[in-house]
Write a structure and sequence with these properties.
The protein has about 475 residues and is of the alpha/beta class. Helices cover about 30% and strands about 20% of the residues. It is built from 13 helices and 20 strands. The chain is globular and about 75 Å long. The chain binds N-(aminocarbonyl)-beta-alanine (URP) and zinc ion (2 copies).
């Protein structure tokens, strides 16, 4: 006679965004079907005693196989990127489908699906990036895509090939409100950055470090306030992504105090790095390894980010995994000839999908800065709610997908490039000691990674059509 459960995860401590308790989990057909004191009648058992049993990590901000305007090659495709994600305790990632200016948004989305097809170890779902908000895109393509389950999209306030002006931002925000999509904003003031870049270059300040000065926190603060003002004018919820420090964070708090629906994301680079890392060894090109936008700030900003992680200013903690090679043949990595002439040519972005959860756990939970429940909220439950995946993902409940990460809170080890699974040839977090590591990642009831290595031969990740974000009130959730 067949057993009632395919798998039981036994003896661990279950942690959700709300609770912490000892129980077993029964799984059938990839779903959680029972949570009880004792589940003994399963075809297979995993002994989780001494471990934490957490909802699988959801990394809501990653870039995989994304084309670049200057030919720089992204170091991760869907295969290596999701392998790295799985090894780091994630069961779902949300990369961006980037619209290339002058092309159809739908065609770009189709291309991304082709790139991801049969390549993913984790589940995936795409945000869109709107770079060319033509009447056709805003009036038809975007509307149809949101209705097809692409319920979030990102807009940029900087980068020559992506920046939208204020009129365009307002138009995109209007569509988001009408269609109930969540807009994600890269808030850095383009003209201020360009002005600072010119000034620094004129003074001969071209090393990677000056990227952090050109991308001043003032420019991020101003753009954050402008994005919030546009959102207020158009009455739409917004998510400010990769918030780097105190000044932009205060703008978000300012808006929240006035009752606005402004949501916020921060990332590992803003708790584990500072702008001094961009100095490299002695203002040399090693600093390029840390160039990302917004850049890491100073210790006061790190302190502020911790306050925001603790007090709820931040809803989501994502990696902003945007991996480039440092050394690469043929001028396709960070260490290219042009980049040596000015920081402005250094590809922006750093790898981090595999180290996101260990860094927040170690620096946050193990050091007593945030609770376990808050860790789960920031890294799984809130991303699921905000991006329309809840309660299928982001929690441990009867009916939810059996996406589970087993966590050894006592394991101590050091981040080393040689142990990571990403495609990049370096990690900006080299040498950081971590207390607390994911030891088993389970996707819909199947173990996909064990002790930092992927063990599943099958690339069983599925594309996830998403529902409307929880930020829109009155939305009724259902598990299909
Ligand atoms: O430097 C970064 N963050 N690159 C990735 C693209 C983005 O703006 O998120
Ligand atoms: Zn961005
Ligand atoms: Zn990004």
């Amino acid at each position: 006679m067949s057993k009632p459960y395919d798998l039981a995860v036994r003896g661990g401590t279950i942690v959700t965004a709300a609770d912490r308790y000892r129980a077993d989990i029964g799984i059938r057909d990839g779903r959680i079907v029972a949570i009880a004191d004792e589940i003994s009648d399963a075809a297979e058992e995993i002994d989780a005693s001494g471990l934490l049993v957490l909802p699988g990590g959801i990394d809501a901000h990653v870039h995989l196989a994304q084309p670049t305007s200057d030919g720089t090659l992204m170091a991760d495709d869907f295969e290596s990127g999701t392998r790295s994600a799985a090894a780091g305790g994630n069961t779902t990632v949300l990369p961006f489908a980037l619209q290339i200016k002058g092309t159809s948004l739908r065609a770009c989305v189709d291309e991304y699906h082709a790139k991801a097809q049969d390549k993913c170890y984790t589940d995936v779902s795409f945000h869109l990036i709107i770079s060319d908000p033509t009447p056709q895109v805003l009036g038809q393509e975007l509307v149809a895509l949101v209705r097809d389950g692409y319920t979030s999209f990102k807009v940029f306030m900087t980068y020559d090939d992506l920046v939208l002006n204020d009129a365009e931002l307002l138009q995109v925000f209007e569509v988001a409100r009408r269609e109930q999509a969540l807009v994600m904003v890269h808030a850095e003031g383009h003209d201020a950055i360009k002005h600072m870049t010119r000034t620094l270059e004129d003074e001969g300040k071209t090393a990677p470090y000056y990227h952090a000065e050109a991308h001043a926190q003032i420019a991020e603060r101003e753009a954050t306030h402008r994005a919030i003002s546009h959102a207020q004018l158009t009455d739409v919820p917004v998510m400010i992504v990769h918030v780097s420090g105190r000044d932009p964070m205060e703008q978000i708090q300012w808006a929240r105090k006035r009752g606005m629906k402004v949501y916020a994301e921060t990332c590992p680079q803003y708790i584990a790095l500072t702008k001094d890392d961009l100095k490299g060894l002695n203002m040399d090109f090693e600093g390029a390894k840390y160039v990302c936008s917004p850049p890491p700030r100073d210790e006061d900003s790190q302190k502020a980010i911790w306050e925001g992680l603790r007090d709820g200013t931040f809803d989501v903690f994502s990696s902003d995994h945007c991996p480039f090679f440092f050394e690469a043949k043929g001028e396709i990595g960070k260490n290219n000839k042009k980049a040596k002439t000015s920081f402005k040519w250094v590809p922006n972005g750093i790898p981090g999908v595999e180290t996101r959860l260990p860094l927040l756990f170690s620096e946050g939970v193990s050091k007593g800065r945030i609770s376990l429940e808050r860790f789960v909220a920031l890294t799984s439950t809130n991303p699921a709610r905000l991006y329309g995946l809840y309660p299928q993902k982001g929690t441990l409940a009867v009916g939810s997908d059996a996406d589970i990460t087993l966590w050894d809170a006592g394991r101590v080890d050091t981040i080393r490039q040689e142990n990571l699974n990403h495609g990049a040839d370096y990690t900006p977090y080299e040498g950081i000691q971590i207390t607390g590591w994911p030891v088993r990642t389970i996707l819909r009831g199947n173990t996909i990674a064990l002790n930092g290595k992927v063990v599943s031969e099958a690339k069983s990740g599925r594309y996830q059509h998403r529902q409307v974000s929880d930020v829109y009130e009155g939305v009724v959730r259902e598990v299909e």
